[in-house]
Protein backbone atom coordinates (compact mmCIF):
# COMPACT_ATOMS: atom_id res chain seq x y z
CA UNK A 1 0.00 0.00 0.00
CA UNK A 2 1.51 3.35 -0.98
CA UNK A 3 1.35 6.52 1.12
CA UNK A 4 -1.59 8.04 -0.73
CA UNK A 5 -3.65 4.84 -0.54
CA UNK A 6 -3.00 4.63 3.20
CA UNK A 7 -4.01 8.23 3.76
CA UNK A 8 -7.16 7.85 1.71
CA UNK A 9 -8.19 4.86 3.81
CA UNK A 10 -7.25 6.59 7.07
CA UNK A 11 -9.29 9.66 6.27
CA UNK A 12 -12.38 8.02 4.78
CA UNK A 13 -14.13 8.33 8.12
CA UNK A 14 -13.40 12.04 8.06
CA UNK A 15 -14.62 12.79 4.56
CA UNK A 16 -17.54 14.88 5.75
CA UNK A 17 -16.72 18.08 7.57
CA UNK A 18 -19.33 17.64 10.30
CA UNK A 19 -21.76 15.04 11.57
CA UNK A 20 -25.24 16.16 12.57
CA UNK A 21 -26.67 14.42 15.62
CA UNK A 22 -30.27 14.67 16.70
CA UNK A 23 -30.95 18.35 17.24
CA UNK A 24 -32.87 17.71 20.45
CA UNK A 25 -31.28 16.44 23.66
CA UNK A 26 -31.94 16.04 27.35
CA UNK A 27 -31.09 19.68 28.04
CA UNK A 28 -34.64 20.97 28.12
CA UNK A 29 -35.21 20.84 24.38
CA UNK A 30 -32.39 23.25 23.55
CA UNK A 31 -31.00 22.79 20.05
CA UNK A 32 -27.45 21.45 19.95
CA UNK A 33 -24.67 22.58 17.66
CA UNK A 34 -23.54 20.20 14.91
CA UNK A 35 -21.12 17.64 16.28
CA UNK A 36 -17.48 18.18 15.28
CA UNK A 37 -16.16 15.55 12.93
CA UNK A 38 -13.40 14.41 15.29
CA UNK A 39 -16.09 13.12 17.68
CA UNK A 40 -17.36 10.52 15.23
CA UNK A 41 -18.01 7.35 17.24
CA UNK A 42 -19.15 9.31 20.29
CA UNK A 43 -22.55 10.35 18.93
CA UNK A 44 -24.69 8.81 21.69
CA UNK A 45 -22.68 10.40 24.49
CA UNK A 46 -22.54 13.70 22.60
CA UNK A 47 -26.34 13.86 22.53
CA UNK A 48 -26.39 13.54 26.33
CA UNK A 49 -23.33 15.60 27.24
CA UNK A 50 -21.08 17.12 24.54
CA UNK A 51 -18.24 17.91 26.94
CA UNK A 52 -18.17 14.39 28.36
CA UNK A 53 -18.03 13.05 24.81
CA UNK A 54 -15.03 15.29 24.13
CA UNK A 55 -13.34 14.21 27.37
CA UNK A 56 -13.83 10.52 26.57
CA UNK A 57 -12.50 11.06 23.05
CA UNK A 58 -9.48 12.87 24.48
CA UNK A 59 -8.77 10.14 27.03
CA UNK A 60 -8.85 7.47 24.32
CA UNK A 61 -6.67 9.37 21.84
CA UNK A 62 -3.29 8.26 23.28
CA UNK A 63 -1.12 10.34 20.96
CA UNK A 64 -1.06 13.83 19.45
CA UNK A 65 1.21 16.19 17.54
CA UNK A 66 2.39 19.46 19.09
CA UNK A 67 3.68 22.21 16.78
CA UNK A 68 5.69 25.22 17.96
CA UNK A 69 5.99 27.63 15.04
CA UNK A 70 6.42 31.38 14.88
CA UNK A 71 8.88 34.19 14.28
CA UNK A 72 11.40 32.54 16.60
CA UNK A 73 11.60 29.64 14.14
CA UNK A 74 13.37 31.93 11.67
CA UNK A 75 16.29 32.36 14.08
CA UNK A 76 16.53 28.70 15.07
CA UNK A 77 17.70 29.63 18.55
CA UNK A 78 14.83 28.57 20.85
CA UNK A 79 11.24 29.81 21.18
CA UNK A 80 12.41 31.92 24.16
CA UNK A 81 15.08 33.66 22.09
CA UNK A 82 13.56 37.11 22.68
CA UNK A 83 13.87 36.81 26.45
CA UNK A 84 17.13 34.84 26.48
CA UNK A 85 18.92 37.30 24.19
CA UNK A 86 17.05 40.37 25.48
CA UNK A 87 15.83 41.44 22.06
CA UNK A 88 13.80 44.64 22.23
CA UNK A 89 10.26 44.68 20.86
CA UNK A 90 10.94 46.84 17.78
CA UNK A 91 13.99 44.79 16.81
CA UNK A 92 12.17 41.49 17.25
CA UNK A 93 9.23 42.75 15.20
CA UNK A 94 11.53 43.06 12.17
CA UNK A 95 11.38 39.28 11.90
CA UNK A 96 7.83 39.64 10.64
CA UNK A 97 9.23 41.07 7.38
CA UNK A 98 11.00 37.73 6.81
CA UNK A 99 8.06 35.49 7.71
CA UNK A 100 6.89 33.81 4.49
CA UNK A 101 5.79 30.38 5.79
CA UNK A 102 6.28 29.31 2.18
CA UNK A 103 6.65 25.64 3.11
CA UNK A 104 3.96 25.45 5.79
CA UNK A 105 1.65 22.80 4.33
CA UNK A 106 -1.42 21.95 6.42
CA UNK A 107 -2.29 19.08 4.08
CA UNK A 108 1.13 17.51 4.60
CA UNK A 109 1.05 18.10 8.37
CA UNK A 110 -2.31 16.40 8.82
CA UNK A 111 -1.31 13.52 6.53
CA UNK A 112 1.82 13.08 8.65
CA UNK A 113 -0.24 13.01 11.85
CA UNK A 114 -2.42 10.27 10.36
CA UNK A 115 0.63 8.30 9.23
CA UNK A 116 2.02 8.59 12.76
CA UNK A 117 -1.27 7.18 14.18
CA UNK A 118 -1.92 10.43 16.02
CA UNK A 119 -5.49 11.48 16.76
CA UNK A 120 -5.03 15.20 17.26
CA UNK A 121 -2.85 18.24 16.63
CA UNK A 122 -2.04 21.21 18.85
CA UNK A 123 -0.41 24.34 17.41
CA UNK A 124 0.86 27.58 18.89
CA UNK A 125 -1.66 30.17 17.74
CA UNK A 126 0.29 32.78 19.69
CA UNK A 127 3.38 32.11 21.76
CA UNK A 128 4.93 34.40 24.40
CA UNK A 129 6.30 36.74 21.72
CA UNK A 130 2.64 37.60 20.91
CA UNK A 131 2.92 36.96 17.15
CA UNK A 132 -0.40 35.50 15.95
CA UNK A 133 -0.78 32.81 13.30
CA UNK A 134 -4.41 33.68 12.57
CA UNK A 135 -6.16 36.74 11.17
CA UNK A 136 -7.01 38.35 14.49
CA UNK A 137 -8.61 41.78 14.62
CA UNK A 138 -7.05 42.65 17.98
CA UNK A 139 -3.47 43.21 16.81
CA UNK A 140 -1.53 43.89 13.61
CA UNK A 141 1.26 41.58 14.77
CA UNK A 142 0.06 38.57 12.80
CA UNK A 143 0.87 36.25 9.92
CA UNK A 144 -1.68 37.83 7.59
CA UNK A 145 0.29 41.10 7.83
CA UNK A 146 3.59 39.38 7.05
CA UNK A 147 4.87 38.46 3.57
CA UNK A 148 3.09 35.12 4.09
CA UNK A 149 -0.31 36.86 4.03
CA UNK A 150 -1.86 33.61 5.27
CA UNK A 151 -4.05 32.49 8.14
CA UNK A 152 -2.16 29.34 9.09
CA UNK A 153 -4.63 28.33 11.78
CA UNK A 154 -7.52 28.49 9.32
CA UNK A 155 -5.60 26.27 6.90
CA UNK A 156 -4.83 23.67 9.56
CA UNK A 157 -8.38 23.83 10.93
CA UNK A 158 -9.82 23.04 7.50
CA UNK A 159 -7.54 20.06 6.97
CA UNK A 160 -8.20 18.66 10.45
CA UNK A 161 -11.95 18.93 9.90
CA UNK A 162 -11.71 17.14 6.58
CA UNK A 163 -9.62 14.29 7.97
CA UNK A 164 -11.31 13.76 11.33
CA UNK A 165 -8.40 14.99 13.43
CA UNK A 166 -9.07 16.99 16.59
CA UNK A 167 -7.41 20.41 16.65
CA UNK A 168 -6.37 21.92 19.98
CA UNK A 169 -5.26 25.54 20.05
CA UNK A 170 -2.32 26.58 22.20
CA UNK A 171 -2.59 30.16 23.45
CA UNK A 172 -0.03 32.00 25.59
CA UNK A 173 -2.03 33.40 28.49
CA UNK A 174 0.26 34.39 31.34
CA UNK A 175 3.29 35.61 29.40
CA UNK A 176 3.45 38.27 26.71
CA UNK A 177 6.66 39.99 25.66
CA UNK A 178 5.00 42.60 23.44
CA UNK A 179 1.65 43.85 24.79
CA UNK A 180 2.17 47.16 26.66
CA UNK A 181 -0.03 46.13 29.58
CA UNK A 182 1.02 42.49 29.96
CA UNK A 183 2.48 41.45 33.35
CA UNK A 184 5.71 43.24 34.26
CA UNK A 185 8.63 41.81 36.21
CA UNK A 186 8.19 44.21 39.12
CA UNK A 187 4.91 42.56 40.14
CA UNK A 188 4.93 39.13 38.52
CA UNK A 189 7.57 36.42 38.63
CA UNK A 190 8.11 33.55 36.25
CA UNK A 191 10.09 35.51 33.64
CA UNK A 192 7.13 37.69 32.79
CA UNK A 193 9.23 40.00 30.56
CA UNK A 194 12.76 40.18 29.16
CA UNK A 195 15.06 41.81 31.72
CA UNK A 196 16.32 44.75 29.68
CA UNK A 197 19.08 47.01 31.02
CA UNK A 198 17.00 50.02 30.00
CA UNK A 199 13.23 50.26 30.02
CA UNK A 200 11.46 48.92 26.95
CA UNK A 201 9.64 51.92 25.40
CA UNK A 202 6.87 49.65 24.13
CA UNK A 203 5.87 48.65 27.67
CA UNK A 204 3.79 50.56 30.19
CA UNK A 205 5.11 50.89 33.73
CA UNK A 206 3.92 51.80 37.22
CA UNK A 207 0.77 53.97 37.23
CA UNK A 208 0.47 53.84 33.42
CA UNK A 209 0.32 50.05 33.47
CA UNK A 210 -3.18 48.51 33.57
CA UNK A 211 -3.34 44.72 33.69
CA UNK A 212 -7.09 44.84 33.04
CA UNK A 213 -6.42 46.05 29.50
CA UNK A 214 -4.28 42.99 28.89
CA UNK A 215 -6.80 40.62 30.49
CA UNK A 216 -9.51 42.02 28.20
CA UNK A 217 -7.20 41.47 25.22
CA UNK A 218 -6.73 37.82 26.23
CA UNK A 219 -10.45 37.29 26.68
CA UNK A 220 -11.26 38.86 23.31
CA UNK A 221 -8.66 36.85 21.41
CA UNK A 222 -9.72 33.52 22.91
CA UNK A 223 -13.37 34.31 22.14
CA UNK A 224 -12.35 35.23 18.60
CA UNK A 225 -10.52 31.92 18.11
CA UNK A 226 -13.63 30.00 19.15
CA UNK A 227 -15.89 32.10 16.92
CA UNK A 228 -13.59 31.62 13.92
CA UNK A 229 -12.86 27.93 14.58
CA UNK A 230 -15.90 26.57 16.47
CA UNK A 231 -15.11 22.88 16.03
CA UNK A 232 -11.73 22.86 17.72
CA UNK A 233 -11.24 20.42 20.61
CA UNK A 234 -9.76 22.67 23.29
CA UNK A 235 -8.19 25.95 24.28
CA UNK A 236 -4.78 24.94 25.64
CA UNK A 237 -3.42 27.75 27.81
CA UNK A 238 0.25 28.26 28.67
CA UNK A 239 2.27 30.57 30.92
CA UNK A 240 0.56 29.75 34.20
CA UNK A 241 3.77 30.44 36.16
CA UNK A 242 3.07 34.18 35.86
CA UNK A 243 -0.45 34.37 37.34
CA UNK A 244 0.54 31.68 39.84
CA UNK A 245 3.35 33.92 41.13
CA UNK A 246 0.88 36.52 42.43
CA UNK A 247 -2.83 37.18 42.85
CA UNK A 248 -4.09 35.04 39.98
CA UNK A 249 -7.66 36.29 40.48
CA UNK A 250 -6.59 39.44 38.62
CA UNK A 251 -6.49 37.34 35.44
CA UNK A 252 -10.18 36.37 35.81
CA UNK A 253 -9.44 32.85 34.61
CA UNK A 254 -12.72 31.32 35.75
CA UNK A 255 -14.60 33.90 33.70
CA UNK A 256 -12.46 32.90 30.74
CA UNK A 257 -13.14 29.19 31.32
CA UNK A 258 -16.88 29.83 31.62
CA UNK A 259 -16.92 31.79 28.37
CA UNK A 260 -15.10 28.98 26.55
CA UNK A 261 -17.57 26.37 27.80
CA UNK A 262 -20.57 28.55 27.01
CA UNK A 263 -19.50 29.27 23.45
CA UNK A 264 -19.21 25.61 22.44
CA UNK A 265 -20.65 22.80 24.60
CA UNK A 266 -17.92 20.31 23.65
CA UNK A 267 -14.92 22.60 24.18
CA UNK A 268 -12.31 21.64 26.76
CA UNK A 269 -9.96 23.90 28.73
CA UNK A 270 -6.45 23.13 29.91
CA UNK A 271 -3.87 25.25 31.73
CA UNK A 272 -0.75 23.13 32.10
CA UNK A 273 -0.59 21.52 35.59
CA UNK A 274 -3.77 23.36 36.52
CA UNK A 275 -4.27 26.83 37.98
CA UNK A 276 -7.77 26.78 39.46
CA UNK A 277 -8.61 23.09 39.57
CA UNK A 278 -11.57 23.61 37.24
CA UNK A 279 -9.70 22.75 34.05
CA UNK A 280 -10.96 19.78 32.00
CA UNK A 281 -7.56 18.09 31.69
CA UNK A 282 -3.99 18.55 32.89
CA UNK A 283 -1.03 18.98 30.54
CA UNK A 284 2.31 19.07 32.40
CA UNK A 285 5.64 18.99 30.62
CA UNK A 286 7.58 15.72 30.41
CA UNK A 287 6.18 14.04 33.52
CA UNK A 288 3.35 13.99 36.04
CA UNK A 289 4.78 14.80 39.45
CA UNK A 290 1.94 13.72 41.72
CA UNK A 291 1.65 10.24 43.18
CA UNK A 292 -1.23 7.96 42.30
CA UNK A 293 -3.68 8.03 39.44
CA UNK A 294 -4.38 11.50 38.00
CA UNK A 295 -7.58 13.10 39.28
CA UNK A 296 -8.31 14.49 35.81
CA UNK A 297 -7.62 13.35 32.26
CA UNK A 298 -3.90 13.77 31.68
CA UNK A 299 -1.61 14.64 28.80
CA UNK A 300 2.18 14.70 28.93
CA UNK A 301 3.83 17.06 26.46
CA UNK A 302 7.41 16.44 25.36
CA UNK A 303 9.59 17.22 22.35
CA UNK A 304 11.47 15.39 19.63
CA UNK A 305 14.47 17.69 20.01
CA UNK A 306 16.69 17.02 23.03
CA UNK A 307 15.77 20.45 24.33
CA UNK A 308 13.53 23.30 23.27
CA UNK A 309 10.14 23.37 21.59
CA UNK A 310 10.69 25.78 18.71
CA UNK A 311 13.27 24.95 16.03
CA UNK A 312 16.82 24.81 17.41
CA UNK A 313 19.45 24.58 14.68
CA UNK A 314 21.98 23.35 17.25
CA UNK A 315 19.81 20.24 17.72
CA UNK A 316 20.03 19.15 14.08
CA UNK A 317 21.20 15.56 13.91
CA UNK A 318 20.32 14.92 17.55
CA UNK A 319 16.55 14.38 17.49
CA UNK A 320 14.97 11.45 19.31
CA UNK A 321 14.70 8.04 17.69
CA UNK A 322 11.78 5.67 17.12
CA UNK A 323 12.89 3.64 20.13
CA UNK A 324 12.89 6.73 22.33
CA UNK A 325 9.45 7.85 21.16
CA UNK A 326 7.99 4.42 21.92
CA UNK A 327 9.56 4.62 25.39
CA UNK A 328 7.86 8.02 25.84
CA UNK A 329 4.52 6.53 24.75
CA UNK A 330 4.90 3.73 27.29
CA UNK A 331 5.76 6.17 30.06
CA UNK A 332 2.73 8.35 29.26
CA UNK A 333 0.45 5.33 29.13
CA UNK A 334 1.65 4.21 32.58
CA UNK A 335 0.04 7.23 34.29
CA UNK A 336 -2.30 6.85 32.22
CA UNK A 337 -1.94 9.85 29.89
CA UNK A 338 -1.79 10.88 26.27
CA UNK A 339 1.57 11.84 24.78
CA UNK A 340 1.58 15.22 23.02
CA UNK A 341 4.80 15.03 21.02
CA UNK A 342 6.27 18.30 19.79
CA UNK A 343 8.00 19.12 16.54
CA UNK A 344 9.47 22.50 15.69
CA UNK A 345 9.25 23.28 11.96
CA UNK A 346 12.02 25.15 10.19
CA UNK A 347 11.59 28.90 9.71
CA UNK A 348 10.01 28.22 6.31
CA UNK A 349 7.28 26.17 7.98
CA UNK A 350 8.58 22.91 6.57
CA UNK A 351 8.38 20.02 9.01
CA UNK A 352 11.78 18.96 10.33
CA UNK A 353 13.12 16.09 8.23
CA UNK A 354 14.34 14.08 11.23
CA UNK A 355 10.92 14.30 12.87
CA UNK A 356 9.07 13.32 9.70
CA UNK A 357 11.17 10.16 9.44
CA UNK A 358 10.72 9.13 13.07
CA UNK A 359 6.99 9.88 13.18
CA UNK A 360 6.43 7.70 10.12
CA UNK A 361 8.50 4.90 11.64
CA UNK A 362 6.52 4.99 14.87
CA UNK A 363 3.24 4.99 12.97
CA UNK A 364 4.29 1.96 10.96
CA UNK A 365 5.26 0.16 14.17
CA UNK A 366 1.84 0.87 15.70
CA UNK A 367 0.02 -0.37 12.60
CA UNK A 368 2.09 -3.52 12.26
CA UNK A 369 2.16 -4.54 15.93
CA UNK A 370 -0.93 -2.85 17.37
CA UNK A 371 -1.19 -0.39 20.24
CA UNK A 372 -1.19 -3.01 23.00
CA UNK A 373 2.01 -4.59 21.75
CA UNK A 374 3.74 -1.23 21.33
CA UNK A 375 2.72 -0.10 24.81
CA UNK A 376 3.47 -3.47 26.37
CA UNK A 377 -0.11 -3.87 27.56
CA UNK A 378 -1.20 -7.41 28.34
CA UNK A 379 -4.60 -8.43 26.99
CA UNK A 380 -6.88 -10.94 28.66
TrEMBL record:
SMART domains in UniProt: Alpha_L_fucos
EC number: 3.2.1.51
Domain Glycoside hydrolase family 29 N-terminal: 44-366
A Pfam match: Alpha_L_fucos
UniProt keyword annotations, A-Z: Glycosidase, Hydrolase, Signal
Highest taxon listed in the record's lineage: Bacteria
Residues at the site labelled May be important for catalysis: 301
Biological process according to GO: fucose metabolic process; glycoside catabolic process
GO CC, alphabetical: lysosome
Family: Belongs to the glycosyl hydrolase 29 family.
Task performed by this protein: Alpha-L-fucosidase is responsible for hydrolyzing the alpha-1,6-linked fucose joined to the reducing-end N-acetylglucosamine of the carbohydrate moieties of glycoproteins.
Protein known as: alpha-L-fucosidase
Native species: Flammeovirga pacifica
Highest classification ranks of the organism: Bacteria, Pseudomonadati, Bacteroidota, Cytophagia, Cytophagales
